[in-house]
Write a structure and sequence with these properties.
The chain has helices at about 10-15, 35-50, 95-110, 125-135, 165-170; strands at about 1-5, 55-60, 65-75, 80-90, 115-125, 140-150, 155-165. With about 180 residues, it is of the alpha+beta class. It has one domain: Aminopeptidase (3-Layer(aba) Sandwich). Strands 1-2-3-4-5-7-6 form a 7-stranded mixed sheet, sandwiched between helices. Helix 3 links the parallel strand 4 (about 80-90) and strand 5. Helix 1 crosses helix 2 (about 35-50) and helix 3 (about 95-110) crosses helix 4. The longest helix is centred in the first third of the chain and has 16 residues, at about 35-50. It is globular and about 40 Å long. It starts with a strand and ends in a 9-residue tail after the last helix. The structure holds coenzyme A (COA). Coenzyme A binds near residues 99, 126 and 128. The site of coenzyme A has 20 residues, from strand 4, helix 3 and helix 4.
């Protein structure tokens, strides 16, 4: 399920954000607790902006356990475009949760936000993310060379996108974000 972050999520969010495996392909992390607290504060502040611009949600199991986060928001200046992102704690990888959450976020972007194009990008070695993105119906549009650098090493990223009409034509459901 997807839901707004609350202040008491700090410990669970930090368990993921401080993890060197979980963050190996990200442009941030591993976080200090101060960085994670600041992230949570930014998420909560973004939730109070009217009209709302970006969405970062907690990904939780039915039991309420927080296993990661994901969201969609503008990146760049073009209207009706959204960038998809997500991260799960490694203890929950390979169970289909990321794919389920990502599909819900894409459906929300087209259904509730009225977006025209949703895109994502990932480090080319991030095979798990490649699978999740492709399962959302996205098409690989290219490879951006040396887009990010971690520990002094430049990394290429794949860029993917799905357009509004492609998404609906796949028959993907427009489920509500819970
Ligand atoms: C990317 C990430 C969210 C994938 O999570 P996940 O829980 O493994 O994803 P799913 O269980 O939904 O798996 C999706 C598919 O990818 C495959 N997959 C997952 N990890 C893989 C890997 N390292 N190599 C190859 N395939 C992989 C799964 O087998 C599955 O394929 P299938 O449905 O055909 O069986 C997770 O690895 C993660 O949080 N990574 C760190 C953060 C991150 O990289 N975020 C994305 C930034 S762009």
């Amino acid at each position: 399920m997807l839901g707004e972050f609350v202040t008491s999520d700090l410990e669970s969010v930090h368990a993921c954000a401080r993890d060197s495996v979980a963050t190996q392909f990200m442009t941030w992390g591993p976080n200090t607790v101060a960085e994670t607290r600041s992230f949570l504060e930014r998420c909560q502040a973004a939730g109070a902006v009217v009209p709302r611009v970006g969405y970062e949600w907690a990904i939780t199991l039915g039991s309420g356990e927080l296993i990661g986060g994901g969201g969609i928001g503008p990146k760049g200046t073009e209207a009706q475009q959204g960038h998809l992102g997500y991260i799960l704690h490694p203890a929950y990888w390979g169970l289909g949760y990321a794919t389920e959450a990502a599909k819900r976020i894409v459906a929300f972007g087209f259904g509730q936000l009225g977006l025209h194009r949703i895109w994502s990008d990932c480090v080319t070695e991030n095979l798990g993310s490649v699978h999740v993105i492709e399962k959302c119906g996205m098409t690989r549009e290219g490879r951006l060379r040396h887009l990010s650098r971690r520990a002094g090493v430049w990394r290429d990223h794949f860029v993917y996108a799905v357009l509004e009409d492609e998404f609906t034509s796949t028959g993907s459901e427009r489920s509500q974000v819970e």
